[in-house]
Structures are given as C-alpha cells and as structure tokens.
Amino acid sequence: MDSTQDSEVGRPAVGGIGPVGHDEVNRWIVCADVYRFLAGCFRYPETDVMATNLSVLALGLEKIQTVPKSVRAHMHRMAGLLNGVGGQDLRIEHERLFGTNPLCSPYETSYCPARKERILGDLAGFYRAFGLLPVAARPDMPDHICAEMEFMSVVLLKAAYGLRRGAREMSEVCLNAHQSFLADHVGRWYAAFADAAEERTDLDVFRSTADLLREWVETDLRLSHVSATSYSASPTIPFGDSSPACPIVS
User: Fold this and answer.
1) CB 132 within 8 A of CB 247
2) Tens digit of pLDDT for each residue in 8-49?
C-alpha cells in the first residue's frame, strides 16, 4: 500500500488527539463499517435479504476513497458474489463451515484452548465496559468471530462519536480499547481462522470474505502500529456448538 493510502486512513496518536475535523470522524466511521460488514458476512444468514443488504454496504464502502485500494477491490468482488448467491446456499455452507460440527471453528478459544477461561474472562470485561450484553440464547460464546467483529465496530463508532463531540477522554478510551483488543484477541487468531475458512469452503463468497478479513486486519494492525502474536496451537473443533446468530448485542 502506498504512503498516500496510509495517510488517508492512518490513526491519530492515542495519547495526543489534536483538533479533529470532519474527515477524521468519517475515517473512524468507515473503519467501523468495515468491521460491521465482516460481522454480517460471518453471521448466520437467516433471511435472503441479508445478502442483499451486505451487497449494498459493500458497494457503498467500495466508493469511499479513504478505504485502502486493496480493500475497495475486495468490496467490489464481495458485492457481486453476494448478489449472485442464493440464501439457501449460504445457509447450507455456513452450517457446514461454522455450525454444529464445524470444519472451521469461528471461536477464538479453539485456537488457544489452554487459555480458554482467561480469554473468555477478558472478552467479557471488554464487552461489559462498552455496554454489550450476551444474547440470552448464546450467553457462553463471547469469542465468536461475529462478536469480536461487532465489538471492534462499536468501539470505533464510539471513538468517532467522541471525536465529533470533542470528548477527548472518551475517544482515547475507545482508541486504547481498539488497540488492546486488536493485539490481545482479533490479531492473534484472524489469520488461522481465515486460512481454514478459505481452504475448506466450497463457496467463493466465503473464500472472498476470508481474504477480506485477512487484508483488513493486517491493514488495521499496521496502521494502528499494533503487534499481535498468533496463537501457536492448532485449533480444536468445538463439537456440539452451533452459531445461528451473533452472540452479543448492544
């Protein structure tokens, strides 16, 4: 990615937010929208209209020049794929990949089972701090990829809101949380998850989603100046778990 793209989407320093303009606020909103898009792609497609809505969001993000060119190219491809796939095909493949006996575990703790309790406790603390509560039907799954993508979106939207309101302390709390969550959670397992999904799916739409996840998180890590150490253990498969919905709500 060239330096112009870096300057367009670069983050302000966490400890020193200066005067903020409209472009700075929009930058955070766009970042939040990319994470929201990824959460939607990994959520169980209960209705056919979900794919249509995601396609519209992808087309919108593709047109925003502050989104890195490589990510815009992914959005263009995703919009076409989402328009061309049937809802039933998506549901069948989602269940095969991420459902009851998943080929690709969508849970962070599957990639580091020895630290499961610590990871779940840390995630619960993040969610509580930002007013996110577990869905009654899925209270035990805060480490689902959908939940983690949604959390990143919420934190970035709150950062944008704080910047717009001139609430520096609120913005700094959100920026710190974003960087910590990226380093301690998303950044540690996104690559293994994306590799598994890409290798094991039979649908181009999920293959492209895995590519986008990898591209976006790598971009976020680099531009946020965050380092994350990948889990070294091979993922375990949480047999008996299904994932029909995102397990957290605001």
Assistant:
1) no
2) 444 443 333 334 456 778 888 999 999 999 999 999 998 888
